[in-house]
Please model this.
Amino acid sequence: EINTSGFAAANQNFSVHVKIAVAGLIEVYWNTVLITSYAGDTSALGAVTKATCRKFGATFNRWEELIIANHDVSSARLKTLAITGVGANTAWSGSYLDIDGAFEDNNSFISSQIAGDKSTFVVGNLPVDSLEVSAVIVSGTFRRNSTGPTAINAVVRSGGVDYGQALPTLTQSFEPRQAIFAVNPATSSLWAKVDVDALEIGLESVA
Model:
């Protein structure tokens, strides 16, 4: 998440550069101004890439979602599907209302004390004019405690079956993590709109 207030006026073109400066260091530039950086494990990332954006209107200064790729994504759109209800699995403590927001709130969360706990949730549908789904991404901010489960699997429930994928290593502070499901694991084929509309997403705690 980047707070762009003060960097660009309404309807002004700008460029975002994401640079792997050295091993273990990522820098993000707004035009030529360094606005944020990340120091950590970057072994799975590529070299230098660039995204050109445009800010519309004068009141929206937080950019929550930015697609960065090594191919043309000019026709792609990132759609966030909010959680709308309880799914088939309900072992985690807390309500779906604690995690149904589009913005980060570390004071509102669900939790698990026992490895193997799993909860899944109903999400909203894709827009009716969706043509093609490139991937389904389960994302959020997560942390582990000093005792109890130490890891989390992101879960998608498709065709009545749960499929898990390990999230990157957790720390004892809330940090963003995500799992990318490039295909529907129930069919091993690209996602169709009807698959996503019937999808449940969730989490499973791991020892």
Q: What stands out?
A: Helices lie at 193-197. The chain has a mean pLDDT of 81. The two ends are 30 Å apart (CA to CA). The longest strand covers residues 13-22.
